[in-house]
Every structure is written in structure tokens, then in C-alpha cells.
From TrEMBL:
It comes from Paractinoplanes tereljensis. The keyword Thylakoid does not apply. SUPFAM superfamilies: S-adenosyl-L-methionine-dependent methyltransferases. This is Methyltransferase. CDD domains: AdoMet_MTases. InterPro entries: Methyltransf_25 (IPR041698), Methyltransf_Superfamily (IPR050508), SAM-dependent_MTases_sf (IPR029063). GO terms for molecular function: methyltransferase activity. One of its GO terms (biological process) is methylation.
Length: 218
């Protein structure tokens, strides 16, 4: 059972994304068409990964669907039941389920890849080791994890998000130093295989970071 602070974080996140799910899908469904670098990172991941892939924190399924078009065997998992409902409606050929990235209902060593595309931005930094341990557990040796997140220059930065996608919400948003995330991945057992930090574009208020980790072979 989650401790009270973890339970509070999970409840706040689930509630907020249940509220915004339909509008979130409408606003972001074509975002990849506007981001050359994000498509490049996802395309590179699709070329090197081998085996089934879970999109953890998949939201309405836009990244899941994009990777499926790149011939990956995809499934999506999200904390928000409403997000999962939207994903199932828009990507009926892909299996989606409700779940937490802190406690994945997946077998050990079963995945070739795992994507957490901006799905850790609300996770308190002290819980990242728990998430990365779960990612390591469910990936097979040789499997790869791909993270996308908001980059900070120094330590983690916490921001309050009170409005989003036309709704009043209550969420904490964390910007994370890429080196901190890389160190936490390494502590979980991963070997870093790719890192990219790009400048803010359009409406973004900070640089964006992408990290790929490899679960070593035995």
C-alpha cells in the first residue's frame, strides 16, 4: 500500500488527467508533426528496440499510436481511466490498461522496450528510484528505456500547475537536471545509451531532455 504522500500524488494526478483527457487529446494529437527532434528520438528508439514495448503514462495514446505506426508491438498504460478510455477509442487496435508506473502489472523481463514520454513530470523526485526499479524489472536483458522530460539546469525545480487544457487543475510539475536522471537510471542498473537536450520551442518555457538507457545483458 502506498504511503500517504505517494497516495496523494497518485490521486492528484489521476483526478487532473481524468478532467482534462478529452481536451488534452484534441490539443496535443498533432504535436509530433511540429517537433522534428521528438520524431527523431522516437524513430531512433524504434530502430534499436527489439520486442514488445510499453508506453507508460501513455495518456490518450498519441505516442503509443505513433510508435505502432513504426512497426513496434505496443501497449499503453496510464493512471487515468478517462485517458485510457480516450486512447481505446482513438487507437482500437492497441491494448491499453489502467495502472501506475510505480507498480506495473507486468511480468519480470517481459519487455523489449519501455517509453515514459513526459509521464514522470508529476512524479516527486524521491519516487524516481522506485519507478526506475520497476522499469528495470519489466525489461528483458538488452531492453531499452526511453524517457522524455522537462530539463532543469541545477537541481529539481517544482512548479504548481493550476490551469491546463481549459480546466482548473491541481498538479505539481518537476523540471529535472538530465545528469540527475542519468545517475538515477545508472543506480537502477541501466547503462546510458543516448542523451539529447534541446532548446525550448514555441510555447515551452524550458529546454527538453531525452535519455535512453539499456538494461545490460547477463
Amino acid at each position: 500500500m502506498a504511503d500517504p504522500e505517494t497516495a496523494k500524488y497518485l490521486s492528484k494526478t489521476r483526478m487532473a488527467y481524468d478532467v482534462v483527457a478529452d481536451d488534452y487529446h484534441v490539443v496535443l494529437r498533432d504535436e509530433l508533426a511540429e517537433s522534428t527532434w521528438e520524431r527523431a528520438v522516437l524513430g531512433g528508439f524504434a530502430e534499436v528496440v527489439d520486442g514488445p514495448v510499453a508506453d507508460v503514462g501513455c495518456g490518450p495514446g498519441r505516442i503509443t499510436g505513433h510508435l505502432a505506426k513504426l512497426d513496434l508491438d505496443m501497449q499503453g498504460i496510464d493512471l487515468s481511466p478517462q485517458m485510457i478510455e480516450v486512447a481505446r477509442k482513438n487507437y482500437p487496435a492497441i491494448p491499453f490498461s489502467v495502472g501506475s508506473l510505480l507498480e506495473l502489472d507486468l511480468p519480470d523481463n517481459g519487455l523489449g522496450g519501455l517509453v515514459a514520454w513526459y509521464s514522470l513530470v508529476h512524479t516527486p523526485p524521491q519516487l524516481l528510484p522506485t519507478a526506475f526499479a520497476e522499469f528495470f524489472r519489466v525489461l528483458r536483458p538488452g531492453g531499452r528505456v526511453l524517457l522524455g522530460f522537462k530539463a532543469a539546469e541545477a537541481g529539481p525545480e517544482k512548479r504548481a500547475l493550476t490551469k491546463g487544457y481549459g480546466h482548473e487543475i491541481d498538479l505539481d510539475v518537476y523540471w529535472l537536471p538530465p545528469q540527475l536522471v542519468a545517475d538515477l537510471l545508472s543506480a537502477a542498473g541501466f547503462t546510458e545509451s543516448m542523451r539529447m537536450v534541446r532548446a525550448a520551442e514555441r510555447y515551452e518555457g524550458q529546454p527538453q531532455a531525452y535519455l535512453m538507457g539499456l538494461k545490460p545483458e547477463r
